[in-house]
Each structure stands twice: as structure tokens, then as C-alpha cells.
Amino acid sequence: MRCPISEAKRESQRTGRTPHTFKWLLSADRATSSAALDRPPIVSLHLAPSTFPFQLCLKYGSNLGAMLRLSAHPLLRGTGRKSRLIIGGILCAIAIVALLRHNDAGSQPGRHENEALSQVFGGLSSTIPLQTHPEDVVTKNAHRFASPDDFLGDHLDRIRRLTPLSVAETKQTCKWTANELETTQFMWGPTSEWMKQDFDLNETEFRRHEWMNHLEKETIPWSTVRKHFKGRGIVTAAGHINSLKRLAVALRQLTRLGSTLPMEVAYWKDEISDDQKAWLEGLYPHMYWNDLSSPKNVFKTHSPKEKEYGHYHLKTAAVLNSRFAEILLLDSDNLPMVKPESLFETPTYQEYGTIFWPDMARTRAENPMWAITRTRCRMDEYEQESGQLLVDKRKFWYHLQMSAWMNEQPYYLSMLLGDKDMFRFAWHGLKTEFGRPTMWLTSIGLVYDGRYCGHTYAQRHPDNSVAFLHRGLYKLHHKASLKWFRERGGMFTHYKQSPYDMDMNHPVPTKWNFDILDDIKGGQAWSCMDLVGVAHKPVEELIPGGVEKLWEALDGYWIINDPDEE
After folding, report:
1. Which range has the worst mean pLDDT, 65-69, 138-142, 324-328, 508-512?
2. Would you list the domain boundaries of the chain?
3. Which CATH architecture has domain 229-429?
4. What is the C-alpha separation between 318 and 403, in angstroms, rounded?
5. CA distance 324 to 340
């Protein structure tokens, strides 16, 4: 084994610099490699020379078996087994003292030197690979793997050994101008901690270590659950009475389209009564129900009231626990405009086993998620809009578990919004391409007082027709405003379509704001999305026959006649 201090000296002589910290280098000798020790290399830590004993502890882990391996190290040969074990323990004790003394000396280590100190005794693997590899060694067609297990083993090992990428490196591939940064919608603003200063490599590599450790040690093996899932179906998470009423509109539409694709509604405990189930089954007979609190579910989750994460975690749990193998995840406020069966037959889905639809916003280049997943920032990629999502669980069981895990981690709440981008970055982390429509979304809304207010996304089928109307901001309207606009032509009268909707690289200026009209008595403010500089057109040019007649036929304005709504 080569001494890391000597390595640092040689590096200093070679470069003429004496860095305050250096990358821990250990022997590439296969006899003492992480592979031989069954301790896969995951994270790259930058540790000061004074913490060398601590590095030995990191190399060999923290449980008894690992301590025995440490005690058998060649440096300790020649002593009895019991003595070697005692010496190994002493080395780790010295490591702690050395690290604390290093801190007291005024040299503050990276944030995760301290975190690693606490985590090493929890059994996390922290062995450092000597050799890393460029991005092109990872299989480009991983989405074609036949089994989820193919993503572990050699593929995961190649991902593990990718050359680390810092935030400074990952953001270099996104070169928006100052004006584009000002006019394009980006998720999270300049007040975010990671916008004020780039997270360092120790930070992002430590977090990368966490998710890889989760994949390797904490996920449910595919072999134990594969028989639980079969067929295709729609999955939605709904429980609140208003979400059920919105879902009723979608069920009427599925019946109108002639769909027979079964739907499974995921809920929590007593959120849905038997009478409500019977009502919805009367609208669409192909219904199943899944109580996510039931011990029968293979993936355990928690009540939406237990943690302050909203209800997003229920969507990933609904997908993992669904009886279906191939799933269309659909929000209750989303209206299918084509038979959903057709989506599973598209070349895009057949090739990738997924279709992820784009959102209005983009991910900032400074977002640490790019580095945490060792992915270079992509200018051709919008954030994901998960009001609809197509996925084959038979291929991506571990990707979905990674998404669900990130959804439960408070750390990611300031980087990703709910479930939607947890999916996208799980795919990035596992270096797997996902299917996308060729056209960006189209905004649908209405015009009043000469100004446009978009409240619905028209998401495209891979053949470029309109596949969904996702009413993300429509549901923020109250009874008074819906009644007022309905009497003046309706809520779905115009649309805006970017002239660059086939070019995902093009930054389209967008605007989001609140609005209100004094003419609406008792009305409350609502939200609008706008494509700046794009002319609005009659919605009939986009959807033959328009939307209003359809909306009336589906009882889309139910809220106006609902005595429980204000």
C-alpha cells in the first residue's frame, strides 16, 4: 500500500504546489482493493494529511468484520490476532483525536469530513477508487436492459467509477445569456444557498455516496416482488374530496374516449368512503383501489400528515405499489385527450420504456443535482412535469425506488420540487436515457381586458397531437371567477404556442403572476402563466371544436354548482 502522505509529497513536487488538502490515494493493488474487500468505492473525500488513521478506518469500514480486515492489514502482520484487533481499534481512536486536533488547529475541514466521521460508524462504505473513468465508458443504451437487476452490478460499478464532476464543471455546459436568465423561468431563485456559492466537491460526492449506498443496501430486490405486477393501467393518487371530483371529470372523459384501460386509485386509510368508490365506479367500471397504509404494499410509506413534504411522496409510492407493471401516472386534474392505450404503443415508449413530459421551467446550471448525479447541465432539457408519466416497472424498479427515496430526503427540498424531478434525476444518476415528446408544451387559457392568462398545459403525444390538458393553475380559480368567465365565453378560449416548440434548446421568455378583476364580486386572485412575445390564438385552431363544449359535457364546471365551495 502506498502512503498517502508520500503520494501528496510526490504530487507537490510534480506540480510545485502544496495543497492544504489532497485526495486520498490508496493502492490499486487488487489484493487490497475495495473489490477484494466487498466494499464498493462510492465517495471521494478530500481529507487532510493529519487524518491518515481516519482514512484507514474509512477504507475498512466500521463493523466487526471490517475491523478484522483492518487488523489483518500487512502493516500489522507479525502480531497475534487479538493484538491486531486491539491495534486496529486504537488506530481508529487515534483517527478521531487526530481529526479533532486538526480542527482545533484552525484548519476547518470540509463539511462532510465531519459527516463522514459520524457516518463511518453507521457502516457506510467510503472506499476511494484510485482510477476513475470518462463518461463514455457507461453503456449508452442502458434503457434497453431487459431487467432492473442489469442496472446493478457492472453498470452501477461503471457509474461509481465515473470521474467526479464539480458544480463548476457541470454548469459549464449551460451558457444562457444574462437576458435569457432574466426572462426564462427557472426553478428556485437567487436566494437559494447553492446559488450564493457553488457546493464543493466534498458536498456533492457525499450526497452521491448516500444515494448509491441506498441503491445497493436498502432497496427492495426485484426478484422478491416481480410476480406482484402485471399488465398496463392508469395510476392516480387521490383522497381529498376535491381531487375526487376532479378525477370524476377524467373518468367521464375516459369513457367518452372508449378507453378500457384499468385505473387504480391510491389513497391513505379512510380518505375515500365506500359510497365515493361506488360513485366513481359508476362513471368508469374499470377501477381498482389501493390503500397505501395497508401492510400488503411492498413499498412502505407514511401518512401525508406525518412529514412536511406535502403529498408528493404518495405519487412515487402509488407507482411502486401498483398492481400494474406498465403505468400511466395521471394527476386527478389532468384530462386525457387521446385513448391512453395508444401511448404504450408509440415508438418512443417502446424504445425507452418511459415518456417524461416537459414543464415550463428549467433547472438552473448551479443546481447541485447535476453534480450529485455526475450529469452535465443540459440546455435541451426542461424540468419534468409529472402530471402524466409513462414507465415500465419491469425495467426501472430501482430507478423508481431511488425517486421515492429522494422524495423523502429533506436535503433535496431546496433543489427539486416534489416528485416530478426526482424521477428525472434518478434516471440521470443511473445514466439512463428517458423518452420525451418532440414538442414542448402549449399554454391554454383565456383573454380578458386584452391580456392572456394561461392556466393549462397542453402536453403532446409523441405524434405531436394534444394528448393531455393538465390544469395546474385552473384549480386555483374559485367559484366567483369561474362563473364570471364561463358567462363570457369560458375558461378555455385561447392558446399560445412557441414558434420554437420543436427546439428544446431555445429559451422561451415566460412570465408567471397573480391576477384579479375588480368586476368579479367576491373573487380571489388566481395565477397566470404567459409566453412573452407570443401571440394568442383561438383554441379551435389547436383542438378542432375547441374545449368549452367538451368541458360542459364532462361537468367540468362542477364547482359552480357545488354548495360546499365558495
Report:
1. 65-69
2. 4-120, 229-429, 442-561
3. Alpha-Beta Complex (3.90)
4. 12
5. 15
